[in-house]
Amino acid sequence: MIYSDEYFMQQALKEAELAFEAEEVPVGAVVVMNQKIIARGHNQVELLKDSTAHAEILALTSAYSKLGTKYLPDATLYVTLEPCLMCAGALYWSKIGRIVYGASDDKNGYHKHLHSESAANAPFHPKTELVGGILAEECAWLMKSFFKTRR
User: Fold this and answer.
1) d(Cα 50, Cα 13) in Å, to the nearest integer?
2) Residue 13 has pLDDT above 70, yes or no
3) For all residues of the chain together, what is the average pLDDT?
4) Rg (CA), the chain
5) Model-level pTM?
6) How far is CA 110 from CA 38, 42, 89, in A?
7) How far apart are CA 23 and CA 39, in angstroms?
8) DSSP per residue over 88-106, as a string?
9) Dihedrals φ, ψ of 148, to 5°?
10) Shortest CA distance to 127 belongs to which of 56, 81, 54, 76?
11) According to DSSP H, which parts of 1-135 are helical?
12) Most exposed: 19, 26, 109, 150, by fewest CB within 10 Å?
């Protein structure tokens, strides 16, 4: 069976819901290879007392460990929120084949730090395919709900 980007984003949303339930900023991620989820992650900044414990970083680390490698050219990362600049750097070094994100992040997303769009997928690896806006409304709703309860 061939799964769609929407299917895998729904799996990332399940990870984001786990973060929400743990009172973490609700961002979730899954790493997929050959139509199978090989790693999962959700924000654990509060739990681990680690500002770098973002969903993308945790999912990448888990994938590296599972595969025994430091690069993921044949993998796709699905993440519910546009990666921040730190995660964009980690994704660059992973040489990941594809990044699919849900909601845009005007406040902390990587786009905020770009001064030009000269490279189509900057700041990611040149061979990385980038797709945004998959289930964007659902992903944004979870974030808005989380912060609404905190204000």
Assistant:
1) 22
2) yes
3) 92
4) 14
5) 0.93
6) 25, 18, 9
7) 22
8) HHHHHHHT-SEEEEEE--T
9) -65, -40
10) 76
11) 5-21, 45-48, 55-67, 85-94
12) 150
Task: Give 148's contacts (C-beta < 8 A, 6+ positions apart).
Answer: none
- Report the side by side order of strands in the sheet with 28-33: 36-42, 28-33, 76-81, 98-103, 129-132
Question: Which one of the listed residues 15, 23, 46, 56 is annotated catalytic?
Answer: 56
* Cβ proximity of 50 and 86 under 8 Å: no
Q: What is the mean pLDDT of residues 48-53?
A: 98
Rounded Cα distance, 38 and 119, in Å:
29
Query: Would you call 6 helix, strand, or coil by DSSP?
Result: helix
Amino acid at 70: K
Q: Which two tokens stand for residue 106?
A: 């005007």
Task: Mention every residue, 6+ apart, whose C-beta is less than 8 A from residue 3.
Answer: 35
83, 113 Cβ separation under 8 angstroms: no
Clarify whether 6 is annotated catalytic.
no
Handedness of CA 105, 106, 108, 109 (dihedral sign): positive
